[in-house]
Amino acid sequence: MSDMAVDNSKRRFLVAVSSTLGGVAAVGAALPFVFSMSPSARALAAGAPIEVDLSKIEPGMKVDVEWRGKPVWVVHRTPEMLALLPKHDDKLTDPKSENAAQQPKYCQNPTRSIKPEYFVVIGICTHLGCSPTYRADIGAADLGADWPGGWFCPCHGSRFDMAARVFKGSPAPTNLVVPPHKYLSETKVLIGEDQASA
């Protein structure tokens, strides 16, 4: 009888050990499969939304990120930059951003943004696809005393203000494109996902 008790305890021990080892092996075999479901870096670059930390962008500064293989700029506009926006509407091709293809509906406003101080825009000129240069310097000598700050395309001379609205006489036919985006918090913006989906 005592021999049976010893055998049963050994049997329970062996069952517990083999069950544990079997569970560890199953998890080990499943991990590569689970990780394969995560988007690759290539897939992320191809179109997955990207998150930007706004707390690291000083007023007046711009950061560059990549979304869908395109440069996207995030600018922390100063109160002075915002104050200049309505003062040159008469010099712009589409000052009210009426071309709905150039921005989401929620950015069809004077600042072309959800939050006026933060501006998100695709950095590709609407003329021939060059990447304009950020020229925040107001009254820059090479751009004229009336330059309010914005972007200048070195390829063919298109000019855009701090809301990326194109100036009349520029080769670019339309404003720069504002991508879909939404705020996850006061300091986080998600580029590539529509505010409407929030």
What does this structure look like?
The protein has 198 residues and is an alpha+beta fold. The chain has 3 helices and 9 strands. The protein has helices at residues 2-36, 41-47, 79-84; strands at 50-53, 62-67, 70-76, 118-122, 133-135, 150-152, 159-160, 181-185, 188-191. The chain has a 3-stranded antiparallel sheet, with no helix packed on it. Strands 2-3-4 form a 3-stranded antiparallel sheet. The chain has a 3-stranded antiparallel sheet with strand order 5-6-7, with no helix packed on it. The chain is elongated. It starts with a helix and ends in a 7-residue tail after the last strand.
What is the element layout, followed by pairings?
Blueprint: H1 2-36, H2 41-47, E1 50-53, E2 62-67, E3 70-76, H3 79-84, E4 118-122, E5 133-135, E6 150-152, E7 159-160, E8 181-185, E9 188-191
Antiparallel strand pairs: 1-9, 2-3, 3-4, 5-6, 6-7, 8-9
The outline comes out as elongated
Beta-strand portion reads: 15-25%
Q: Quick one: biggest sheet?
A: 3 strands, antiparallel
Which structural class do the helices and strands define?
Answer: alpha+beta
How much is the radius of gyration in Å? 27 Å
Whole-number tally of structural domains? 2
Distance between the termini: 69 Å
What is the number of E strands? 9
Q: Averaged pLDDT, please?
A: 86
Give the neighbour order of strands across the main sheet.
1-9-8
The CATH homology group name of the largest domain = Rieske [2Fe-2S] iron-sulphur domain
Low-confidence stretches: none
How many DSSP H or I helices? 3
CATH level-3 fold name of the largest domain: Rieske Iron-sulfur Protein
Residues in helix, %: 10-25%
